[in-house]
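Hi team, as promised in this morning's meeting, here are the two structures we talked about. I've kept the exact order from the run log so nobody has to guess. The first one is mostly here for context; it's the second one we should focus on when we meet again. Sequence first, then the predicted structure tokens.
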Amino acid sequence: MKEKIRFITNPVWSLSMDERIRKLNQYLMGWIGYFALADAKKILQFTEEWIRRRLRLCLWSQWKRVRTGYRELRSLGLSHVHAIETANTRKGAWRTTKTPQIHKALGVAYWQQQGLKSLVQRYSVIRQA
């Protein structure tokens, strides 16, 4: 499963974020439907967090320049100081996706708004049915 998610969320693969999220939703909802009988809620929570981090990596990699990162972070509601601090970081892309500023700008609500479906919510719905 992780290998397929890594393939879909590969930042080098030139794919629009909408298409990437659509492919992820399709794969993950099928996977949840198949393994819904297993007791895996905690594992799904960790997997969901990891997927969001991979998507943040893809988005951060698209913003190749400091100026673009700053502009996008400001448009997502980050303050001037935090946007400059994050856009000018020397950290690598993977490490940057773990910062509190990126979590604030690209949190759970942002990804739900973009159309990413929650594994845990889907798991709970299937388990109750």
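And here is the second protein, the one for discussion:
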Amino acid sequence: TASALVFIFFQLAREQTVQERIFNEIHALYDRKPQADKSFRPQDYAELKFMDRALKECLRLWPPVTFISRAITDDIVLADGALLPAGCVANVQIFDLHRDPEQFPDPERFDPDGFLPESVDKRNPYAYV
């Protein structure tokens, strides 16, 4: 959690317009609340659509977990014919996965709109971990 927050703050510090949009989105939600109860509840965060996309984009660029390892229990033959034999360890490099230009056009650019539903629908569902 700490490393995720550091990278989120790092990225948002570089994105003034994104900061302003998040601030305005939070402020608009606050303004819609009744004067008698301005407190935020967990369900309120679902309304912060842009903030959600911006946080996902921060985590795409700077994943706090850079790889996942799994022990292969049965032989697996990949589409290209390569064999992953039982007993070996397979690593998924999340940092590289999140920078695949086939899944994320211009993958080094910070783009919260890459998490709009129409963008997500075009991607492999396993492209963002």
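Starting points for discussion:
Strands lie at 67-71, 76-77, 83-84, 89-93.
The chain has one domain: 2-120.
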